[in-house]
Amino acid sequence: MGAQVIDHKGGVWSIAVPIPDNPLGHTLVHLLETERGPVLIDTGWDDPDSWDTLVAGVSACGFALTDLHGVLITHHHPDHHGLSAKVREASGAWIAMHAADTAVVRRTRAAVPGQWLDYLIAKLVTAGAPDEHLSRLREARAKRRSGRQPPGRQAALPDRDIAPGELLDLPGRRLRTVWTPGHTPGHVCLHLEEEHPGAGTGIDTGTDAGGGADAGGGAGPRQGGHGQGRDFGRLFSGDHLLPGITPHIGLYEDPDDATATDPLGDYLDSLERVARLAPAEVLPAHQHAFTDAGGRVRELIAHHEERLSGLRALLREPLTPWDLAVRMEWNRPWEQIPYASRNIAVSEAEAHLRRLVKLGQVEQVERAADGGPARYQAV
Q: I want to staple 181 with a disulfide (CB 3.0 to 4.6 A). Which of 55, 154, 266, 358 is the partner?
């Protein structure tokens, strides 16, 4: 099978690996050449066509799968981590991921049948989901179907950790990790601290006439960039920063941990961190490469501020998370949102609720004694 491959120059390629039956279309798996062999950034969905495309793409970049030195996973979702086990089996490459997402992979692999389904039902009951929505999940549990098993059960357990701020051991390259929780608890971006190969030859890197100042330096981690206003390097952004899509921010799911996390707060903080890096170009995992990371960050922050403001207005009366999700604006009317996607929408509503509660702008005002739905209201 052929592969859509883009040479981004400077030993960087992208391979469009298809995601079956998904409007996103594909995951952009990036290949980074190093002196020890190529390294993949993400792997794509575990599907035969996806696998064939990935293998063909590596070949189109001029390498064999057995040449791979390692795999860096931006986060645990199956369209990024799904083919990791097959890649390791075929190449012997190591696999690295942030410890928080490795814990998710370990928990998923160890989950007993039905655990995830029971957890999801309990969460949706608390969120106020109606019986007609819950009935499908209850039928699945009664029939002991496996359709609600968590995805990624076949994905590899990583054998290396990605530490925040770490300059990775990739001879011939300067690739630094940036921990960007929000989309997942262990999401990372990877900053290629090297002058963009297009500097001065057509790409608008935002540098002045001198271009690429400090590009050859190596004086430790960058704190806010190589000078204010000087765009530098390239950022492999995973799902954290996409040119035309707002990444899903839902609750961090863990059946064994009831800690009240704040994923949206984490995400907004992570956006600010990436904006300070001021990369010349962003290489995301979906859609296409783009410049002006700072502008895109401002758009995303404004989007979430507008959404939080809208939710405060809705919460002039007590509402459940399900009530909120039904009233929120999505890319289509609620009646047209597929059954499974409604669960994701409710999780995003809950993440925004968590943020408002933490800011002291909303409080829980009602919870049925029998464990029924919780309701929230603006303070």
A: 266
The span from the CA of 67 to the CA of 142, in Å, is 48
Alpha-carbon span 74 to 133, nearest angstrom: 33
Angle formed by the axes of helices 131-142 and 339-358, to 10°? 120
Sign of CA dihedral 217, 223, 228, 229: positive
Which residues 6+ apart lie within 8 Å of 239 measured at CB? 74, 75, 77, 80, 183, 187, 247, 284, 285, 286
CB 361 within 8 A of CB 312: yes
**Amino acid, res. 214:** D
Q: Which tokens sit at 67?
A: 């040449």
What's the maximum distance between 2 C-alpha atoms anywhere in the chain? 68
Burial 331-341 (b: 16+ CB within 10 A, else e): eeeeeebeeee
User: Alpha helix locations (H) across the chain?
Assistant: 48-60, 78-81, 84-91, 99-110, 115-127, 131-142, 263-277, 293-314, 321-327, 339-358
Among candidate residues 206, 208, 209, 210, the one with its CA nearest the CA of residue 234: 206
231 with 279: CB under 8 angstroms? yes
- Which pair of structure tokens corresponds to residue 220? 């430790």
Using CA atoms of 329, 334, 338, 339 in order, give the dihedral in degrees to the nearest 10.
Answer: 110
pTM over 0.85? The answer is yes
Per-residue pLDDT in tens (0 to 9) along the chain, 379 residues: 567 999 999 999 999 999 998 888 999 999 999 999 999 999 999 999 999 999 999 999 999 999 999 999 999 999 999 999 999 999 999 999 999 999 999 988 887 767 778 888 889 999 999 999 998 888 776 765 544 444 445 788 999 999 999 999 999 999 999 999 999 999 999 999 999 887 755 454 333 322 222 222 222 333 333 333 457 899 999 999 999 999 999 998 777 777 789 999 999 999 999 999 999 999 999 999 999 999 999 999 999 999 999 999 999 999 999 999 999 999 899 999 988 899 999 999 999 999 999 999 999 988 766 667 899 999 9
Residue 4 tokens, joined? 């859509």
SS3 of 130-147: the string is CHHHHHHHHHHHHCCCCC
Q: How far apart are CA 170 and CA 222, in angstroms?
A: 18
